[in-house]
Every structure is written in structure tokens, then in C-alpha cells.
Design a protein that fits this description.
alpha+beta, two-stranded antiparallel ribbon, 2 helices, about 140 residues, flat
């Protein structure tokens, strides 16, 4: 009986971040699991596909291998960024002026002004005609 080795490729996910924390935060005090969290970091996660007993395309095998790699990258990134978020806390909260909300207009609506096109809110088909979807 022979065992096939896992086929690997040079495919990988690279995640890079650079943070610019407020000067009031001492970067050496930001830790996760008693390890300091750097203000900039690059991590590489190899995507390793393996031979399976069920036949599948190369693309299908790649996406099956990609999912756990993405979850690992996401988990590690969120742990690092969460440590920074907890350290910074509310010290950055007052940097943005959210404006004064009117009746029925929350912060999200005010911040979206100028970003969203009012015509996008209507239900229209690809010709720009507004309708209920029923043919006449």
C-alpha cells in the first residue's frame, strides 16, 4: 500500500497591516496572550491542496483548501486587531463629528450622505425603468 503525499503549490494568502495608533497609547502595552502585538505585521498562509478520494476539478480542490486557510488568517488578524481596539478604546471616538441626527435619521444615514446616489434606492431594472417586476 502506498500513501500519496499532499500536493502543494506556491499559492498563499498574505495579510499585511500597518497601524498608526494615537500617541497616547504606548505600543509596548498592547498584548494578546501575553505577547506584544506589533503596529505592523505581515503573515503568509500557504494554501495546500491534497489528493482526495472523490474526483474533483483543480478549481474545486483549490477552493476546498482555501476555506480553512482563510479562516485561520481571519482568526489571527482579528485577534491582533481586537487587542489594538481594546487598547485604544474610546480615545478616538470624538475625532469624527457625527452631526446632529434629525427624526428618523441616525448616524449611518448622515455618514452615508454624499456617498449613496438617491436613484440607487429605487427598484429599477437594467434599463432604469422603475416597476414592480410584473410584465404588462
Amino acid at each position: 500500500m502506498t500513501a500519496s503525499a499532499a500536493a502543494s503549490s506556491s499559492r498563499q494568502i498574505t495579510v499585511t497591516y500597518t497601524l498608526h495608533p494615537p500617541t497616547s497609547i504606548d505600543p509596548s502595552t498592547v498584548t494578546h496572550n501575553d505577547k506584544p502585538v506589533p503596529t505592523s505585521h505581515t503573515s503568509t498562509y500557504p494554501i495546500t491542496t491534497s489528493e482526495s478520494k472523490t474526483p474533483s476539478s483543480e478549481t474545486s480542490s483549490y477552493y476546498k483548501a482555501l476555506a480553512p486557510t482563510l479562516r485561520t488568517a481571519q482568526k489571527e488578524l482579528m485577534e491582533s486587531l481586537s487587542a489594538w481596539k481594546e487598547s485604544i478604546g474610546d480615545s478616538e471616538k470624538m475625532k469624527e463629528d457625527p452631526g446632529t441626527p434629525g427624526f428618523g435619521r441616525g448616524k449611518a444615514a448622515i455618514m452615508a450622505e454624499g456617498v449613496m446616489d438617491p436613484e440607487d434606492e429605487e427598484d429599477s431594472d437594467e434599463n432604469g425603468e422603475v416597476g414592480d417586476g410584473a410584465e404588462v
